[in-house]
Amino acid sequence: MTAKTILYVEDNEMNRQIVRDLLKRTKYQLVEAHDGEAGVAKALEVKPDLILMDIQLPRLSGLDATRKLRADAVTASTPIITITSFALSGDEQKAKEAGATAYLAKPYSPRDLLALIRRLAPEE
């Protein structure tokens, strides 16, 4: 049984480290991308089981990256959790309209994030 792969698209190293630490004791394999364009390319290459997508990204916003992934047959049905630190009213609606499966505002509880990951991409 192979481990499920999670792609984390996030430009902030500290946030990536938090998720690395969170997933270290799980069976998930973490792949990272530092901007929206790299995230889309990596998703199409790796075909992850789940994508964590920051909304505020350089080169291509998380919402635009989500729209591109939804438009591609390879990633059209991949669960995408959008994450933002600048939660404004309407952001969750925009994320859902872009194709996000779930939405999480920072600061979030790592335990809540892990529960959401396990619900959308259960460990084998």
Overview of the molecule:
This protein is an alpha/beta fold and 124 residues long. The protein has a single domain, classed as 3-Layer(aba) Sandwich (Rossmann fold), CATH 3.40.50. The protein is 41% helix and 19% strand. The chain has a five-stranded parallel β-sheet, with helices on both faces. Strand 4, helix 4 and strand 5 form a beta-alpha-beta unit. The longest helix has 11 residues. The model has no long low-confidence stretch (mean pLDDT 92).
What's this model, at a glance?
With 124 residues, the chain is of the alpha/beta class. The protein is 41% helix and 19% strand. The protein is built from 5 helices and 5 strands.
Looking at this protein, list some descriptive labels.
124 residues; Rossmann fold; globular
How would you sum up the global shape?
Answer: globular
- Neighbour order of strands in the largest sheet: 2-1-3-4-5
Spans of at least 5 consecutive residues whose pLDDT stays below 50 are none
Largest sheet: 5 strands, parallel
Radius of gyration computed on alpha carbons: 13 Å
Can you write the helix and strand succession as a string? EHEHEHEHEH
What amount of the residues lies in strands?
15-25%
Total number of β-strand segments?
Answer: 5
Helices and strands in order:
Blueprint: E1 5-9, H1 13-23, E2 29-33, H2 36-46, E3 50-54, H3 62-71, E4 80-84, H4 91-98, E5 102-105, H5 110-120
Parallel strand pairs: 1-2, 1-3, 3-4, 4-5
